[in-house]
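Quick one:
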Amino acid sequence: MKIAVPSAENRLSMHFGHCKEFDIFEVDMDSRTILKKESHTPPPHEPGVLPAWLSEMNVNFIIAGGMGQRALQLFEEKNIHVIVGVQPDLTENVVKNYMEGTIESGANVCDH
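Output:
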């Protein structure tokens, strides 16, 4: 499974579409371990670009602070599950919390 987390300085970035980079984690959900982490600079923010880009990298899941409704719909169309409302923390901690089932999500902090 591949999990993408929008990031800035190894921390979850609260603004998905304008983050500096994405940390992409390859994980084994059975053993709850991170197998690999890569950081990628995203293409310029344009409607529909990030869903296609992350889909091409075989991302299955996104953990974000906030995301616009149209982006949520586009990811759903690409069969990429999204969880929003996650508070800033080190991206590795966010992924570990997800794998352990202890991630806390709240309101989608994006209003567009």
